[in-house]
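Let's do one together. I've listed all components of the complex below, 538 residues spread over two lines.
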Amino acid sequence: MLILFKNKRVIPYSMSRADGRGNEEFRAAFLKTKVLNQAKGSCYIELDQTKVMVGVFGPRQEERKFGFSETGRLNCEVRLTSFAAGAGMNKQMQMAAERNMSAALEQALTPSVLLDRFPKAVMDVYVMVLESDGSHVGAATTAASTALADASCELFDMVPACHVVRVNGSLLLDPTSSEEALSDGSVLLALQPSTNEVTQLNMTGSWSAAERRAALELAMGGCAQLKEVMRSTLLEAAATAPAS
Amino acid sequence: MSHSSAEIDFCTQSCQHGIRLDGRACEDFRPLELELGLIAQASGSARLHLGSTDVIVGVKAEVGAPLREHPDCGRLQATVEMSSCASPEYEGRGGELWGLQLAQALEASLVPEHPEKGGGGLDLRSLSIIPGKAVWLLYVDALVLNDGGGVLCVCVCVALAALSNTRVCVCVFTMGGGAGEGDAAEPEIELEDDEEGEGGRPLQGVAEVPLIVSLGQVDNAVVVDPTCLEEQCAASVMHIAANARGEVCGVQQSGRQGVDPAALVALMERGAAAGSEVLASLHAYFKQAPQQGT
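Okay, and this is what the predicted structure of the assembly comes out as:
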């Protein structure tokens, strides 16, 4: 089922962004589940030009090298397509970026999964970043959380994630890649909205105390918006699913 | 290294009462022992003991070509090797992934994101010899000899110490090696030999490099500089990079549970204050420390 979500502000008080958005406005977010036949759960997210595809498999048997474990494990693997990685990136840098993204995703999603429901097993989350125009880590986290829910994995809560950058002193929500290049500080926040717990926070650049609070509040507001989109996508998918 | 649930429970309870298992208060660091200039062949070196965590860093400076995007900036490349004796899980290639992540974190904290703008880390523009052709490349190699928790903080701290100790040779370059044809001739670079033992010139921007402080959230208590066992007990560990001015330069969260946003903000304040204190005492030590090799 297609969900199109457009968040248009009536008051155009700040037209300083290249695409005419306000500082606190998300791009048009499009989420769709059940896009992969073979995967237990899947999700495709589009934030204008940022496109990420996620497939979830599991719970599957864990490899022997990990030994016995009373709790399950969440394994995230991210791949960047060569056209998503950017022109200047060589293979080494791309692999480093993929590794970092995989670790970031695991960090953001693990607190939301009931791992002790599948001991000795692993839940595999495979993420493919098809195209990146900024904020692809946040988009990947959001899509992965939706895909986990689509895979009927038992979760404490959904985990939306978003980026906030600071360009010339003003805070911009959901930056494009050109805005990220101009920024001198960025925040990535992944939040469990129902329990109001932050599962992941990455900050770069120097932030004063007041700016930190403002950036965190802006990011939390952005996550609340994303959560509504995720919920409506999943509910629509469940409503139109064939009775089994 | 996994601990039993009884050990974890004991540690959590003791943190709630404000006394940690090694007798520290919640806001105390472990005793820090720093040794500078111990590797003679390296341009700069340092070894740090923080409690039982032991990391040694050597810095080598070489002349090389700059990156195309930043033609007048030097380069820094960090590698972190987890020694097999540090923990049985680092045997063979076990510690490779963790080492790569640590190296990434090290590079992110030592040099600013946009080197051509300056500030926020080492001044890479001062490492340029001939803009566009030759710059200094700094290879920072860290070896983790013993892992007692807090390896990220220790790596950054000892890398900072090694860089403060690093001396690069003074460069003299002559235009036109053979048949000089004006601009078409390739300049020759000669590294001035350092017979008086003065040691070359130090690196610029070492005072801007931030320090990383780890804070663990154990139930209601906040513990600074957690050990291995405390990291396991903590719901989450925040790694906060703070510079000498007390500003927060970077935050990274790791852990199995989420953290309340209000607690997050409080943790960042604590981390920034603790980090700037340690940095102040470190820089005071560097000023009066003897030069490399003497």
